Amino acid sequence: MPAESMPAESMVAESSWHSATARPLVMGVLNVTPDSFSDGGLYLDAERAVAHGLDMVRSGADVVDVGGESSRPGAEPVSEREELRRVVPVIEALSHHVRVSVDTVKRGVAEAAIGAGATLLNDITASLWPVAAEGGVGWVAMHMQGEPRTMQRDPHYGDVVAEVHQFLRERAGAARRGGVGEVWVDPGIGFGKTAAHNLALLHHLPELVDEGSPVLVGTSRKSFLGRLSPGPSGEPSGVEGRLPGSIATATWAMLAGASMVRVHDVPSARQAAVLVGATRLAATVAKDQFGEGPRAMTTTRGDR
Ligand code: HH2
Predict the structure, then answer these.
(1) Whole-number average pLDDT of the chain
(2) What are 271-284's pLDDT values in tens digits?
(3) Could you tell me how far CA 243 lies from the centroid of its own chain?
(4) For this structure, is 262 an active site residue?
(5) How far is CA 38 from CA 35, 73, 152, 240, in A?
(6) Which one is predicted more confidently, 291 or 137?
(7) Test site for ligand 1: of 101, 106, 142, 205, most ligand atoms within 8 A of the Cβ
């Protein structure tokens, strides 16, 4: 295939200079719950959940994040037995096809998920690192103020950016000292935060990236997107109307240096991630593949 008509994705994938950090990764959300804020009830049945997970893999998800308990504001807790029933068969099936993370706050569920094939522990409480150390898997430390049932009632901080970054720095350090080899940090967009707090954390993301741990960011379909971009009637947009804001903020996060974005809409996020990676490497692509400067990347006639 002539280089200039090669899709950016192939250029990234086929080139020798490609590295794991060239393109940010995409984590697809799979909620096996009746009450998650955006996809609750859609994948409660294990067969449907696995089918959706495989769909996300075909669309380019690098990781599928399986959760059996909603953490939306006001959500009611689920028993460990019920959560295990929801997630374990789905993880067993998907882990043969893709890297699976488990989104849980329960030690027993985390351990069973690792036994079923999960290799990343997505921990919104940032406290389960000993389970990750014992299981030899990666760990995501997410920041949350309070707990899901009440966290959005009155979130307050002196300096949200400094406090969140310091919390993540401390937890990441403790996990590393405790033997976790792969530690991710996540500012926890929407977890005990106002729209202003979320925006401040996104704005200052490069400082979190500079701390050295790979950064994961999840803005997908969250309510602050709808409140900041109301429709013509002035009403905040609903979950289904938040795709543009989800991709805009995911792209912002990737450009700021996030190594992975957590999303419901994998195909759109994958395209954004590929383009961020290709654009970041444009000069290298041009030099290595075309033996020329970046101008060699310009489109050919008739190809916009
Ligand atoms: N957001 C949600 C759940 N888990 N984990 C990380 N690391 N970062 C996030 O931003 C994050 C998360 C909330 O989204 P969702 O899973 O779609 O909703 P629910 O909690 O209602 O199942």
Answers:
(1) 88
(2) 999 999 998 888 67
(3) 15
(4) yes
(5) 8, 12, 17, 8
(6) 137
(7) 142
Pick from 15, 10, 52: which is nearest to 284 by CA? Answer: 15
Sign of CA dihedral 138, 174, 19, 268: positive
Give me the DSSP letters along 138-182: EEEEE--SS-TTTTTSS---SSHHHHHHHHHHHHHHHHHHTT-S-
Q: Which neighbouring-strand residues pair with 263?
A: 28
Which of 86, 222, 242, 270 does the annotation list as catalytic?
A: 222
How far does the centroid of ligand 1 lie from the alpha carbon of residue 294, in Å? Answer: 39
pTM (global) more than 0.85: yes
At residue 1, does pLDDT exceed 70?
no
Close Cβ partners of 113 (under 8 Å, ≥ 6 residues apart): 66, 87, 88, 91, 100, 102, 104, 121
Q: What is the mean pLDDT of residues 104-120?
A: 98
Is 291's pLDDT higher than 80?
Answer: no
Based on its alpha-carbon atoms, the radius of gyration of the chain, rounded to whole angstroms, reads 20
